[in-house]
Amino acid sequence: MTATVTVREDDVLGFLLEGKLTEEDYTEVLIPTLQEAIDQHRDLRVLMQVKDFGGWTVGGAWEDLKNWPMLRHLDKMAFVSDDSWDEVLTWMFKAFAGLSGMDTRFFREERLEEAWRWVREDP
Which residue segment(s) compose the domain that 110 sits in? Predict the structure, then answer.
């Protein structure tokens, strides 16, 4: 997968995730970017745009679980997806968000601007 930072504005971050999420995507892009922002702002708002989602590698899934405590610093998370994102993944992330206490919303890719407006609103 390719994980890239698309927006870095104070306590708002944007990521574009394409393909299959790997351990390197976590260790080289997602975790360092999130940690740096947490160190500066404590609580964050994040938009994850997903294209051609192919799941996780074993290492990617492990990094996801291992870094769970970091999620308590996320006030809001918007997921923007194309047709590769299915209902099961939406349900899984809603459950995940419920456990972490963050406000999470899902948007189709044609509503990207609306997702940005929502994530930039104060929590």
Answer: 2-120
